[in-house]
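queue> holo job accepted (UFG)
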Amino acid sequence: MMKLLVTGGAGYVGSHTVRVLCRAGHDVTVFDNLSQGHRQAVDAAATFVDGDLGDAGAVESVFAGGSFDGVLHFAGSLNVGESVAQPLSYYRNNVVCSVNLLEAMERHHVRRMVFSSTCATYGQVDGTPVTEETAQVPISPYGRSKLAIEWAMRDSVAAWGLGCTALRYFNAAGAAADGGLGEDHDPEIHLIPIILEVAAGKRDHIQIFGDDYPTPDGTCVRDYVHVDDLAEVHRLAIETQVAGDFRAFNVGTGLGSSVKQVVDAARDVTGHPIPAVHVERRPGDPAIIYADASKAQEHLNWTPEYRSLSDIIATAWAWHRQHPNGFDG
Ligand code: UFG
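queue> job finished
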């Protein structure tokens, strides 16, 4: 059993991970300002602290009362387009807040951490599977803010013995198999939940951003990984983390799916025709990005349970039907 602090534990990936950690017997404290997360998403077995990482005093007091063995750091902003329009808010909310957290960890000798990084740190890639050695040249303020945090962590590993795993997520998708947790962003920006809003009658159609990419069907290819599989890799990472070591793992299935394939799979799952309209490319989208996830399999013994797009979408659809207005409904 470990005593764990989870920042952003009321968010999408955070809340699924908190549940996995609680079920594994860990003692979990969630620290979240509820700017994007949902109080109802926090497992009843976890302690909840309504706090902001930008408030160094609040961070200090949670550590002073904690004796934590480790930290899982999910809190942050994640909208790529918004980061282009408001870069400084991304540097503040992602980089400055992470520095506050790291400073408190150093003061309190907490030397184990898992960090929510992203495939957006790689930027425009060449269409072959992305390994952890692929050069990180992010093309958005969001991606750059996440890469800056990785470097603050690596430098802390060398300077004061932090042990840290950066999990570079590909496209998180789906919902807990039992329907108890799911994805609820406001505004919704991700492909699968937007498609399901069409199936649920909340939107008329889905816009497909670009159909002239150099891909088999002309639409962008991504690697969709189930949120419960993501949750599990966090548990494996924190349980095996040692002080003084930095690790980075891509977290994807290794399978690429095009936007058209996602829409088709959602049509099968929902039985809804899901009208699609082809529009211009969205600036900044790489044509193809999918993971070589063999390192996580080898080093963490992690194998994603969900390998079929339809199965992933089915879990998201079950959540949407049971919670048409998300957590607040
Ligand atoms: N898409 C559409 N129509 C929509 C929404 C999305 O065609 O209405 C397309 C996008 O162009 C993209 C794919 O669906 O090709 C997936 O888009 P998402 O917005 O769901 O996800 P992204 O691949 O853009 O984003 C993910 C993560 C980000 C991360 C990024 C890095 O969610 O955190 O990968 O590429 F920064």
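queue> The pocket of UFG is lined by residues 78, 80, 118-120, 142, 171, 189-191, 194, 206-209, 220, 222, 259, 282, 285, 289 (CB under 6 Å).
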